[in-house]
Amino acid sequence: xxxxxxxxxxxxxxxxxxxxxxxxxxxxxxxxxxxxxxxxxxxxxxxxxxxxxxxxxxxxxxxxxxxxxxxxxxxxxxxxxxxxxxxxxxxxxxxxxxxxxxxxxxxxxxxxxxxxxxxxxxxxxxxxxxxxxxxxxxxxxxxxxxxxxxxxxxxxxxxxxxxxxxxxxxxxxxxxxxxxxxxxxxxxxxxxxxxxxxxxxxxxxxxxxxxxxxxxxxxxxxxxxxxxxxxxxxxxxxxxxxxxxxxxxxxxxxxxxxxxxxxxxxxxxxxxxxxxxxxxxxxxxxxxxxxxxxxxxxxxxxxxxxxxxxxxxxxxxxxxxxxxxxxxxxxxxxxxxxxxxxxxxxxxxxxxxxxxxxxxxxxxxxxxxxxxxxxxxxxxxxxxxxxxxxxxxxxxxxxxxxxxxxxxxxxxxxxxxxxxxxxxxxxxxxxxxxxxxxxxxxxxxxx
Length: 447
Description:
Helix content is about 45%, strand content about 20%. The protein is of the alpha/beta class and about 450 residues long.
């Protein structure tokens, strides 16, 4: 059946939601765009109208329908999903508000994308709704924002630079956040981190209750654990491990790839796309993957550690969580505040994500024993501010691909973005919209 709207943005009046609306308006009824009908949804029509005016400025707002829906009202969500091909969910934290939206999408057979960076939510949605989504023929794809598309496509981009007989063993991503003014994050991200740490045991319990995932075969030994603080001279950063969703999401894609070496077939794929998909995945080589957050100064690293320890310790108790969420600016040393960044602070921020891949110049070397990598390839993904601008760009391009290339995508199920969008033209689309992918260097490593 023809649906009333191509897509509906749910939570369009939120901090991130209004930037998603702004990005969507760039592609609404433009030449060759599949986006011809759009609606905004949320609890408060007045705030939605204000968000549309903000996103349209300096032009008058277009006549886009404003729909009322509440995550605590399942019937309102079912009615919402029945009117559209695709829901873009911007209502977080997802562990609190996300499941009713996924349930309504799956029940109505409507595709679902979100900007979640919460591993427990993503894995629980896959466990609870994956099979039904496959039966209903709807895609449930989380992490379609800065969490975790730059990590997924960045790893694949680095991996594809290893031309046979060369093979990667490990790829470490180093994230550098930069700004001409000051870095200020979304309070929702901070809240998600606090609740994620508080519910860590639930995530472990969920993983223990599920079947073991397939493990990709990675040439060579597992990399050493390494020091807590690292000085990565090649990219000019001090760095410390970042407990983000990126590594979890990447590992999930590599696991699915281990089970499906040619990728996931589309619901009604063209012969051309089958060949493109199989060629793409034949060039992606699995590697051990980790993410670190970097700073040009050692002082910046101690600041990261201090904030991480505050969240880690205080999240364990109800009073501690209350303090963190009541005074985010205090406990994050100014990085997060409830009112979020100003438009100027958003415009002045950017990111660089360096992918340092180490491996073997010849895969036959691996069979000769426990040798050290002798080759290094460094690539980089770079773009604007992560929480609002880059996230909105990625989410919209994923949505446009889904609307225009649905037959080439899997029929249904709950998946990470990499396995769904990897063989599409997502990377090229991101490059056309301000997110670059570059090869920095290829060199031999002294053994």
